[in-house]
Each structure stands twice: as structure tokens, then as C-alpha cells.
Design goal:
By secondary structure, the chain is mainly α. The chain has a single domain, classed as MetI-like fold. The chain has 13 helices and four strands. The strands form two sheets. A two-stranded antiparallel ribbon has the order 1-2. A two-stranded antiparallel ribbon has the order 3-4. A hairpin with a 2-residue loop joins strand 3 and strand 4. Helix 2 packs across helix 13. It starts with 7 loop residues before the first strand and ends in an 8-residue tail after the last helix.
Length: 332
């Protein structure tokens, strides 16, 4: 008799004559095929690229390329319509540039003094609000308001306040019989830089205060209550309980303020443009002058300053992070 093969019914998983096929793992395969695919598993490479491309384009165009180009220019003399490779000549000239080192000293002094002033005053204000002093809501708004203004507005405002003839500071000094103390605060080399440090501290105390106040409100109530049950006074509770718990926040704010002051430009340019006699010159303003104001038509040397300053700022931030023992990610 001729042999006839029974056709397979694959969908039913059995022979048409009712006998199951001896296929190992066939049932597991059917269950696996019927299981729903995890979310996002079907995203193709083209889809991922389409979503990342806008952000990557902006990053490359406005961050990566300018950084690489600046480093490239630092080894060249960049003149209109031509470049000339000079190797390390720009770096050698920078080491002998007295104005650059004056700007470095001013910037570092600013970056070291202002964060300590800002965070210290902000901590006192945050503790006052945390203790719910009378008028706390009004003071919270009033102390935070300067943060909402731009450096340009703040600069113009304080130029008026520091005016020698009719500025409120000198008018108040003359009114109380201290006219000998009146001076051109932004026109005197001895007081120009401290005055600008005071202005930036006034502007950013409110921001630090809000961050510290949020940190205080997030403290575990059990720890505070335990300290109060032990008859721990307010001073001891502040020193041994509150400050250790908000230490990471304080250190983060100091690092962030340090970075901001190392890049300061707007306020100086609006108020003094680096004067008088270079007493408020910062690295950022010096780079701008060398690139666009001194008519040297060479972008190579300013690029060298920017490259060196980037390395200095990066090294300083890493050193601060190591010194403070920060291992967690900075919170912005």
C-alpha cells in the first residue's frame, strides 16, 4: 500500500489525525510568541536617532564645536581670512602677561570671598524663616526678589546707588555726619572690587536662602524631636544636629557659587568694564577685550586665555569637590 504522510496543522500544534508532534519546547515557543512585547522594545535605531538628533545638534553646535575650535585657535594666530600655526607661542606669551595675572587674582579673590559671604548670610536668613519669625512670608519674598533681576538691571541699579554726588550711600553718610567716608565707590581702586563683591552677594543670598530653607524643612522630624526631648538648646541643636544634616547642601552651594564667580562678566562690564586701573578686571572681561575691543584682529591669543582658564576652573572645582569629600552628584 502506498504510504501517505499526514499533513501538519502547525497552528493547532497537532497532526490532523490527532497525534501531537514530538517537537521539544514547542509549547514554550507558543507561549513566548503569544507574550506581549515589553514597552519600547520595538523602537528602532532610526527612531532613537530622530529623538536624540535635535539635542545633539544643539550641543555640538553651541558647546562641543566652540570648545574644540577654541582649543584649536589657541595654537594659531587667527587673523581675518587666514590662520598661522604658532605652536605654544601664545601660551608662552600668556605666562608673561601681567594683565592676565591681575585678572586672575581679582577673579579668584571674588570667587573665594563671595560664596562664603552668600552662604553664611543665607544660612542665617533661612534659620530665621525656619524659626517662623514675625513677617516671615514678607521677608521670604523680599530677600528672594534680587535673584529675579538680571545682572544688567542690578548693575545699573547699583551704579546709581554708588553715585558719588547723589547716590543713596553717600547721601546717607553725609546725613549722619560721616561725609569723610563718602567716595566714588566704583571709581576708587581700593573699593571697586569689594563693592562688586557686595553686589553679587546681595543678589544671590536669596537663592541660597531658598535652597537652605528647603533643606531645613526636609530634615527628619524624629531627629529634631529627639534633640528637644534631651533638652538640647537652640544653639546646641543648630551646631550638633541641624548643620551636620545640611552640610552637603551648604557645600554644594559653595561650589556652585564658586563656579559662577569664576565666570563673572555681566556685572563688571555694566558697572566698571574692568576699571579703575584694572582693579575689577576679571578673566572673562579680559578675554572679551583682547578678542573684540583692542583691534588686534587676532583670536588666537584670547582663545589661549580661555583654554587655560577652563583648565584652571576645572582643576579648582575638582579640588573643592575632593576637599569637601563630596561623592554624590551636585544638585542644581
Amino acid at each position: 500500500m502506498p504510504h501517505t504522510s499526514a499533513p501538519l496543522d502547525i497552528e493547532a500544534g497537532r497532526l490532523t489525525n490527532g497525534v501531537r508532534p514530538a517537537l521539544p519546547g514547542f509549547g514554550w515557543f507558543r507561549r513566548r510568541a503569544a507574550a506581549p512585547a515589553p514597552a519600547g522594545a520595538g523602537a528602532s535605531t532610526a527612531t532613537i536617532i530622530a529623538f536624540l538628533l535635535p539635542a545633539l545638534t544643539i550641543y555640538v553646535a553651541f558647546t562641543a564645536y566652540p570648545a574644540v575650535r577654541t582649543l584649536w585657535n589657541s595654537f594659531h594666530k587667527v587673523l581675518p581670512r587666514r590662520e598661522e600655526f604658532v605652536g605654544l607661542e601664545n601660551y608662552a606669551a600668556l605666562m608673561q602677561d601681567d594683565l592676565f595675572w591681575r585678572a586672575v587674582r581679582n577673579t579668584i579673590a571674588w570667587a573665594c570671598a563671595s560664596p562664603l559671604i552668600e552662604v553664611s548670610i543665607a544660612l542665617l536668613l533661612a534659620l530665621a524663616l525656619y524659626a517662623k519669625v514675625p513677617g516671615a512670608r514678607f521677608f521670604r519674598i523680599a530677600w528672594f526678589t534680587p535673584v529675579l533681576m538680571s545682572y544688567i538691571v542690578v548693575g545699573i541699579l547699583w551704579v546709581w546707588i554708588f553715585n558719588y554726588d547723589w547716590g543713596p550711600v553717600n547721601v546717607a553718610l553725609r546725613a549722619v555726619g560721616l561725609g569723610g567716608w563718602a567716595r566714588a565707590w566704583l571709581g576708587d581702586p581700593a573699593t571697586a572690587l569689594p563693592s562688586l563683591i557686595f553686589v553679587t552677594s546681595w543678589m544671590w543670598v536669596g537663592f541660597n536662602m531658598v535652597v537652605l530653607l528647603a533643606a531645613l524643612h526636609s530634615l527628619p522630624k524624629e531627629v529634631i524631636e529627639a534633640a528637644e526631648l534631651d533638652n538640647c538648646g537652640w544653639g546646641a541643636k543648630l551646631v550638633f544636629v541641624i548643620l551636620p544634616l545640611v552640610r552637603a547642601t551648604i557645600l554644594n552651594l559653595i561650589v556652585l557659587s564658586f563656579i559662577g564667580k569664576m565666570k563673572i562678566f555681566d556685572l563688571v562690564w555694566i558697572t566698571t568694564k574692568g576699571g579703575p586701573l584694572w582693579s575689577t578686571e576679571t578673566v572673562s572681561t579680559y578675554v572679551y577685550k583682547r578678542a573684540f575691543e583692542w583691534n588686534t584682529f587676532d583670536l588666537g591669543y584670547p582663545s589661549t586665555i580661555a583654554a587655560v582658564w577652563f583648565v584652571i576652573v576645572l582643576a579648582a572645582v575638582l579640588a573643592l569637590t575632593w576637599a569637601f569629600g563630596l561623592r554624590q552628584k551636585l544638585e542644581y
